[in-house]
């Protein structure tokens, strides 16, 4: 059973390290009369691991390396036995311990119908994270926009809610097109959200200077440009379907022409 060190708290990791240090020390003392050099190596490694402040480095690298070196200094076992001991240490290190980020799948909104067949586990996780983040940002934008008449008018004029909803629905049905939505998910939507949040903060200030008024107007113009880009994002995402339709029409027309 794999033990991911990132699932342990700092206290748990320190406690487990000290237990391992104690066991290494006991092993080193046990080898004092049988293999003095191996005993010294293991005892020194145990002490260094005990005082090393980075517990992960101590558990993952220093202690296994110490045991491997200690195996080499064993006197009685044959080289075959030493090889077996070394393999056991390596299996314990790389077969039981790991230090990997904990990946949690994002929860997809139930509003859409998804077709994730054919995606690998890694691709599914990437899609779920990107989709859920984008959807949450869009919902926040819609809520903020409704609180300001000017922003609401701009969003309605350029159909922000309609186009973003259509983009997300298309991605849900065809997640393989996620790569075509990079600009939308990682640039346009986040920038819209950042601008609107700052816009709302500045607008709520009681004493707004002429400079602030100019910045608010510039923010509105930038939002208009971003909303236009989101329209382009939608067309980029769906032009594949338009091309497929054109090709199918051409095939049908060619078939009818050949029959005539």
TrEMBL record:
Pfam families: Halogen_Hydrol. InterPro entries: ChloroindolylP_hydrolase. The keyword Membrane applies. The chain crosses the membrane at residues 21-52, 58-75. Keywords: Membrane, Transmembrane, Transmembrane helix. This is 5-bromo-4-chloroindolyl phosphate hydrolase. It comes from Weissella confusa.
